[in-house]
Amino acid sequence: MSFSSEVKEELSRISAERDCELAELAAFLRMSGSIQIAGGGNRINIKVNTESASTARRFIQLLKKFVKAEVEIIVTKEKMKKHNLYVVTASSPEMGRFLEKIGILLMNNERFYIKDNIKPELIKKRCCKKAYLRGAFLGSGSISDPKGPYHLEFVTAGSKQAESLVKLINSFGLNAKVAERKGTFVVYLKNGDDIRDLLGLIGANESLLKFENIRVLKEMRNSVNRLVNCETANLNKTVDTAIRQIEMINFLKRSGVFEHLSPSLKLVAEVRLRHPDLSLKELGQMMTPPLGKSGVNHRLKKLEEIAEKIKSMKEED
Ligand SMILES: [Zn+2]
Question: Could you tell me the distance, in angstroms and rounded to a whole number, from the CA of residue 153 to the centre of ligand 1?
């Protein structure tokens, strides 16, 4: 099951107060319902498509609390798609009046107008605002798998609808934005904190925990990767230094100077040649008696100075 479906299933189990239920239903209908006019214009049907069985059930339960409606469900399986599609059609003589009551339709002289804004009375209370967002998510929301890039979105039919949703989401201190996509207006959140907060607002607490757990693991893995990269960089530096030192010691040997060096310098040089992969500290521990890191460094520097002197003398010749 996709993370989106998990969130929707969780939302479908939430029990709420009646005013919250009305706000949720209004949002759901606005986001995913289409209106059909039947019976010579005096009967209004609403049709809802959803890929989630639990969402279809939730919608029918909520609708029946407010409207005496005849409900028909058709389940189809679209070719090339994994999911079933649930098409719910509800018809009732009261439907037009109900849609007017929840601010979706305006009836004027036997004509209908679709209203774009959220009816303010529906979302007076904070709990109802959250319920409205829950209905909007059930109606047209989706969230990407938290293992990948963070993304949560609502698809809306028009720019005004999108704007009113953005306003509502951002009234909770979040940063939703609108993008136009193939004739629809998408309200989206990309920030991990914002998405977590929205899951909390709409009541998807189990999904929120799952989201946070995956997020923590992901961030931990990123920081481990950064650490490994950092260690690799240090290792490369050590290797480069060792290669340079070995070339320098071989140069001293070729030029015949090596034999005349002090025993302590010869000893460090031989240990370096035998152990090209060790750090200075480790080289010091290989010696008898052991030598500290700065001691090893000092002697290798000394060898380097001698090599430089010989090189410059040769250039003068
Ligand atoms: Zn409420």
Answer: 23
